[in-house]
Amino acid sequence: MINLGILVSGNGTNLQAIIDSIEAKRLDARIKIVISNNPNAYAIERAKKHHIPVFIINDKHFHTREDADKHLVELLKSHRIELVVLAGFMRLLSPLFIKSFSMKIINIHPALLPAFPGLHVQKKAIDYGVKFSGCTVHIVDEGVDTGPIIIQAVVPVHSDDTEKTLAQRILIEEHRIYPQAIQFFTEERIEIKGRKVVVRNCHKTEDVLENPKVEIFK
Ligand code: GAR
After folding, report:
1. Atom 17 of ligand 1 has which residue's CA nearest to it?
2. Which domains does the chain have, with CATH numbers?
3. Degrees to nearest 5, angle at CA 126 with 125 and 132
């Protein structure tokens, strides 16, 4: 069982997926604290509903990002957080924060990294014309969405997709892979070798994906 500190900014469906996985006993972790940098985030209501302590650290109340991050680090350390989980946390963390929890911060990103880092990535994937997109759970380093990859899931991009329909299809997979990635930490199965994350004793996927379907070889 590990102590999680979850950082949010928005709707909080990933937070909800983690809460539900813990309550269903699929995930052996404890959410000690939820922190939002947005006072209007719906994620706050979700946490309160499950009696999880919530703190709002409004970036606007601090002169610099480092000042806000110092406060964040103190709060997380005082709650003995072992893994910091970014669940739709929409601002970059300073090097100070990242060094304070080195290799102990994870993020979920709604694209198949290293393709489409940054923001509005579902629209970027559609505009680029990729046939598949998906989501990535990765360790956070000092770059933007550049850290070692723990787990990814793939979804097809359909020709009639909008940003909203693709985001929805990707979110379904996010809610599966994020709790799973945290469970890997709980079970101490994560080994980081340079850029690579090795998950000990995991099942291999051998299926081939194609989109559209290949019709001439059955
Ligand atoms: C999710 O799609 C997540 O991958 C994305 O924001 C959404 C948050 O949804 N995160 C990023 O883009 C981080 N750069 P949620 O608040 O419902 O979990």
Report:
1. 13
2. 1-102 (3.40.50.170), 107-212 (3.40.50.170)
3. 65
